[in-house]
Write a structure and sequence with these properties.
131 residues; five-stranded antiparallel beta sheet; 40% helix; DNA-binding
């Protein structure tokens, strides 16, 4: 983590990249532009300055993170260092775990191994012709 000084500004897109929520800074900026990142409940632009204590809401795919900013950094370091920059709320963590479990169960239901058999193919054809 970089020491905080008053001269350096910490943009939200750079901070999200440093905290490893996005693989590139441009992906972070794009997510902000599309309204997937909120600071203290307000939609922001990529150049918005982030401060310690800000509450962020970040939507990535189906998952939503609610985090509190604990430290500031513009440098992308190892994951262990990135995790020191924020703290996720307990409610957010539980909601993500429930959603991950539901997604896992749903994907297992629709999993088929290999190509359909002749019998499966006939059932698929019958199903398609009904619609």
């Amino acid at each position: 983590m970089m020491p905080q000084n008053d001269v350096e500004k910490f943009r939200i897109d750079k901070w999200l990249y440093a905290a490893r929520f996005f693989k590139t800074r441009s992906l972070a900026a794009e997510a902000i532009e599309r309204g997937k990142v909120y600071i203290n409940g307000a939609r922001v632009k990529p150049a918005k300055i982030v401060a310690i204590g800000d509450m962020l809401t970040i939507r990535i795919a189906h998952y939503q993170y609610e985090i509190k900013v604990l430290a500031l950094s513009n440098r992308r370091g190892p994951a262990s260092e990135a995790q020191q920059l924020y703290q996720e709320t307990e409610a957010s963590r539980k909601a993500r775990e429930v959603l991950a479990e539901q997604t896992k169960i749903q994907s297992q239901q629709f999993y088929t191994k290999g190509r359909p058999t002749k019998r499966d193919r006939r059932e698929i054809d019958r199903f398609k012709n009904r619609q």
